[in-house]
Amino acid sequence: MDRFVCVRLVQANALDLTLFQFDYDLTFAVFFMNADRTIYGRYGSRSDRKDATRDISIDGFHQALQAALELHKRYPANKAPLAGKQPGPARFKTPDEFPSLHGKYQTRLDYEGKVVQSCMHCHQVRDAERRFFRDDGKPIPNEVLFPFPMPDAIGLALDSKEKAKVKSVAAGSGAEKAGMKTGDEILALAGQPILSIADVQWVLHNAGEPTTLDARVMRGGKKVNVTITLAKDWRRQSDIAWRVTTWDLRRMAAGGLVLEDATAEERQRAKLSDDALALRVQYVGEYGQHAVAKKAGFKKDDILVSVDGRTERMTESELFGYLLQNRMAGETVRVAVLRGGEQVGLELAMQ
Question: Does residue 49 carry a pLDDT above 90?
């Protein structure tokens, strides 16, 4: 790190969104950048609500630092393969320009007064991006609902202690069908040199639906080319339940409910098949707009078995995706729940 100029940003109040584009739900994120603003890579990943360190490590960060320095040595001769790592067009230059955030924060923190209250958090940028569509009566796009997918969305689990080494490949996944193997080290993806899991997420975040991704991997000391096919709606496999920004989605689509898939034992007791919808209410919001479900009669431990006529098995993330793209604020959705062995019909207002 002594070979870098280290800069720490502690708030998003005046964040340059035309440059700093990353997963805004993260606790910790790093950019490796040239002084001319060329980005070499990113670091920082997360896939769990409780453990923010599961997908990052000092070892992995060390390797990413070394890889960034190697890219810097070859710069600007290697500028072409770095093109895909650069930020894309931004809807707004700063968070303050989003309608739902405009005028709520100053550009600097109030260190002489209420410093905590004056700080805009990064996750509020993602909240505002979703509100931009929802408040305009439009479906929230997949890339906004399911941002920066972890590699498991395409069937890969990567080792957090390495740059981008495959720890396992899910059976039947696009990655397995493409021929990816445990132990493969991803050197490049979509033509971009890969420094970390976050770099893989950057490629996935900007990938189309459907599309193909060309990968170059190191396997047994040899470089191998692999083409991964991504099907339509592939990013819906992402689990967004851990994200701070999903709290606002729970308000919009579920009136403040926190849902989790029923266990095998719960399904057996309720006589529900493995392919049936069975989302158990883990928590019911109690205040403000997060109490809409409570006021509609939903209770903790209810099991949702039908939502808007849909009865097939879905995760909480998939259900939110469906509702936020097919039902607008102000509409009412019929829901059937199992409670004490009896089916109860309820109505839930979308927000």
Answer: no
